[in-house]
Amino acid sequence: MTAEVFHHAVQGQLLALPAREAESVGERVRSLHQEVMRAVPQVDRIACALYDPQADTLRTFVDSTQHGAGLQAYECPLGDSPSLLRLKELRQTRVLQDIPASVQGQSHHSRWLREQGFLSSYTVPLFHQGEFEGVLFFDSAAPAAFTPEVTQRLDVYARMVGLMVSHEIAAVRALVGSMRIAQDFARLRDVETGGHLERMSRVARFIAGVLAPARGLSDEFVEQVFLFAPLHDIGKIGVPDSLLAKPGRFTDEERLAMQAHVALGVQMVERLVEGFGLGQLSGVTVLRHIVACHHERMDGRGYPAGLAGESIPLEARIVAVADVLDALVSPRAYKEPWPVAAALDELDRMAAEGHLDPACVAPVRPHEAQLRAILLRFSD
Ligand code: C2E
Ligand code: SIN
Ligand code: SIN
Ligand code: FE
Ligand code: FE
């Protein structure tokens, strides 16, 4: 394939999106997998894991599996696997021809690799503008499936998947980045710190991850919750400073003025989505839901729409719990920080009274240690 033909094939993949509902990256990778299998039938699984530079971990993102259950919700420190680390540092690919025999380590990662039942695998690092972005796994139930001829063919597909993922991630970063810059300009971080956004988005992802197996939530969805949660209060940019930084409790009138931050946020999302031409970005619905619905209540007494129960999108119910938890344990102009134990009691109380979704609060207490670690790690 010449460079030009390759370029067109890739553009075709990127542009061949349906006019209405945007196709998720997972769906696009699954259709590409069908194409790969026509050329290389022994590729039973294609999966992409993203690199998180802050946590120095790899997390599963999209997964297309022919046989058995797709492997999901896996996160491992990059340093756990010397060969994965080499992918990043030396930009090398990795071929494992005989996983049961060659992967002997006792690390969580090695054990997991043996247990997943594939006999050989080919792993390709993904870079975007020089930055390590993640890795792509091709796995086979057959031994020694990845001969040099096969890996050469797969490299073309690896670049296509890499571009699909980079394209999506770059679009999301542009959107999130510009909204964060807007938050900085508005000095919103004087009121709600970067630490708050970091903590609440990780708490939201944690809750989504706990709910994922029983509810069949994809890694891609969990990742979108994480990426877009920090934008939930973007509309506070349009709220006067005098309200944002008010030291005491609100009057009823002030409370109403503050509640306008939801409608303002929805307007900003629409403007930015249009400005960036991001109507096709699959995560935009998740973003809209988070911004629009994070102050709805299960009993229908929330704002702005008064939606109740399951008609509040799950991503918004999750973000509400994460937002309230972090708001409670953080200092605000109007309140002292709460101890974590008291905040957990308050979440239970708010679930019992019909404010928060009990199903989204339920994962909190059993995982108190992990959540405390998140709060501590990203403390201001
Ligand atoms: P925020 O400070 O980020 O709080 C987010 C949400 O956390 C609140 O949404 C509320 O559901 C929950 N929350 C915060 N503190 C407490 C608390 O002490 N007890 C309980 N049970 N829940 C709490 P809400 O109420 O819709 O408020 C939205 C935003 O309006 C707040 O964001 C804050 O910026 C502002 N705000 C709300 N009430 C007051 C107030 O009395 N004074 C001031 N200065 N700002 C307020
Ligand atoms: C790895 O190869 O280290 C991860 C396992 C996989 O998804 O193939
Ligand atoms: C709030 O909405 O500010 C908290 C009131 C409650 O406990 O539901
Ligand atoms: Fe809010
Ligand atoms: Fe918040």
Level-1 CATH class name of the largest domain = Mainly Alpha
Q: Judging from the principal axes of the Cα atoms, what is the shape?
A: elongated
Please give the share of residues in helix. 40-55%
> What's the architecture of the largest domain, going by CATH?
Orthogonal Bundle
Bound chemical compounds: ligand C2E, succinic acid, fe (iii) ion
Compute the separation of the termini in Å. Answer: 52 Å
How many domains comprise the coordinates? 2
Q: Overall pLDDT, averaged?
A: 86
Biggest sheet strand order reads 3-2-1-6-5-4
Total helical segments: 15
CATH names the topology of the largest domain as Hypothetical protein af1432
Could you list the spans in which at least 5 consecutive residues all have pLDDT below 50?
A: 1-20
Order of helices and strands: HHEEEHEHHEEHHHHHHHHHH
Count all strands and give the number: 6
Mind describing the biggest β-sheet? 6 strands, antiparallel
CATH superfamily of the largest domain: Hypothetical protein af1432
Structural class assignment? alpha+beta
Percent of residues in beta strands: 5-15%
